User: Fold these one by one.
Assistant:
Number 1:
Amino acid sequence: MDRDPHHHGATIVTGGPLIFLGATAVPELIDVLVDINQAGGSWAPRGILDDNPDLAGTTIAGLPVLGPLERVAEHPDARFVFAIGSHSTRLARHSILCRLDLPDDRYATLIHPGAKVYASASIGAGSIIHFGAVIANGVRLGRWVIVLWNSVIGADSRVGDGALITSQVTTNSGVRIGSYSFIGSASAIAEAVTIGPGAMVGMRSLVLRNVASGTFQFGDPPRILSRQEVPDGIIANWEEFTR
């Protein structure tokens, strides 16, 4: 088992048996693992757990689907990649993680070697940082955060647990992105703006003012398209993260 001591003072495991939780993103994450392993990692993907019964017994990207998520207990030596993530599942991610109730150190943190993570940044367990992403100085990412290709998280920003930052997003410094929120591709977020927990920002949006929790905001200039009730557990998670 290999360990990388170079990110935010914490020890990030970079090898060992690995199982994906959720099937949809597995093909692209396999490519991330190939690049990590070529840079010195030693991850050994074993299979996929997914609650879709139609996938049981099939293979995806060469990996077998081993059954539903509840079978995590059958793999005590493996770490898990939490690969469930889209605008429609952003709130469900929290309930799934609570249901699995695994300790943080059972989740693999994947940082593509082509990403730039400043030495003073902090990356939470289970987060996935893709190629070309920049995590600037003083940034704190929570657990299970996904940052896709070529996105920039500006200095001293905070991104709560389970947030999804899609490709080519740019945030200025001091931004707060709430737990289990979703930021669409090519969006820009101004300095010191807060995106509430469970909120969703549509692609190519310009965000100049705070976005309330559970709000779906889209466009430039921005328009509020809908609001959704955010579970109390997500609100509490964000409040704890920002204390």
Note: Residues 1-10 have pLDDT under 50 and may be disordered.
Number 2:
Amino acid sequence: MKLKVYADRMSQPSRAVIIFCKVNGIDFEEIKVELSKRQQLSAEFKEINPMGKVPAIVDGRLKLFESHAILIYLAGAFPGVADHWYPADVSRRAKIHSVLDWHHSNLRRGAASFVLNTVLAPALGLSLNPQAAAEAEKLLSTSLSIIESIWLKGNGRFLLGGFQPSIADLSLVCEIMQLELLSEEDRSRILGPHKKVQQWIQDTRNATRPHFDEAHNILHKVKTKLAVQLSVRANSEMESSIKRVLPSKM
């Protein structure tokens, strides 16, 4: 039975799983779960992941969620996956786990919260939260500095001094790619000081092309859509303001 991957490409972890499968020639069926329509909360999907989050996979009788667990499973369950993704060497694996564990409470919290409270919230029916965005930016900037000073140390171009990418590289880079949704000003302010991170992102992209670019095309489409919505909202607010002012001058 073919592997089923339940995903929304707007989800950073979903993209990581999809790219991993494609790069490694894993045959799978991608089943779209649209977060904007809250399909992840449906009773049908919760039979697969009771947490109501993507990605999730079904492989035969196995139902599995949490992207890092999925990537680890795929690396071991499917023949032909190169060792550099999740090395057989126990010490290398342990170091990869240390990066993945750090990711959840640092880079992911900072990046996801900043993007949500800067651009995405209105599209999800939520209000922007400038205070939350400011706090998230601090955590995000600190996380990028830690990646450069700790995780990217060594002779290789990838995390932990690797000469080829691991599942940690793919997971973290997909997270940072969510910043593509930001304005150029915000994105440059955050990523600009981190030249080493920028090069690492490019190296990971090059190592996983064309699948990396194909999986991330959605970000450019959504960014354009968000810009149009922002323009319409701004024009509407301006018209309302003019209507309030005009009667007072008549």
Note: The chain is about 60% helix and 5% strand.
Number 3:
Amino acid sequence: MKNLFYFLCALNIGYLSWQFHVGQFDPLARQQHRQTPLPGLLLLAEYRAAQRGVYVQRVVESMMTDWQSSNLETTLTRLRMAENDDWLSKATRSTKPPELSNPGPAALLASEHSCFVAGPFPDERAMTIWLKHNALRGLSTTQRQTTSIRDYQVYYPPASSPEQTRQDKAMLAAQGFDGVWMVTSGDNKGGLSLGVFSSAQRAMSFKNQLMAQGIQAAMQPRTETTTQFFATVMFDQRQQRPLEQSGVGLVSCDKR
């Protein structure tokens, strides 16, 4: 029993010593301990609300910065416009006329365009290809009917009657011309064709051979009517020489 009593006494003495050590018996320390706030608990909803408030504050600050920058740019632009207006008013009040640059002869020549009629072309497709190849645009196109020599015919003149025609054929056959045929149209209708040649020189040579044999032959060119195409174009004078070398005729519009 004594041992238990001594143990309790020692325990009380130790507790009192610890209380005295931590300042429980000091009134000033106990007052400061009561005034020290304890950390509170922060709920999840309160934390999210606080984060949203921080985000809104950052957005507002960014908008204010942009607004201030735009106002600064607007002010600078107005100042520049005012300076330009002031310079323009001074230039308007000046009595000295502005000096105009005088282009040289080369520049004037380069800026001059001339009108030409290009052609003839055998068909519209050939004309279109030529214009596209030379990067030209036809102001207008025209078609013309032209008569050209197709070939040259050597013939025996027409007879005055069918009987005379049979006699002429017999005479030519005796001379070795069995393949003669009668001309059915044109100015030589009724005559006997002896040959057709592409060149006048060869036709004339053959006619002279027949005349040497006593055959009174004649020669006449045969013509045909064809449609030719022409294009009216405008181009720089510097292009004239290369275009003339392309083989297509160029005639000035003033000479037509």
Note: The radius of gyration is 59 Å.
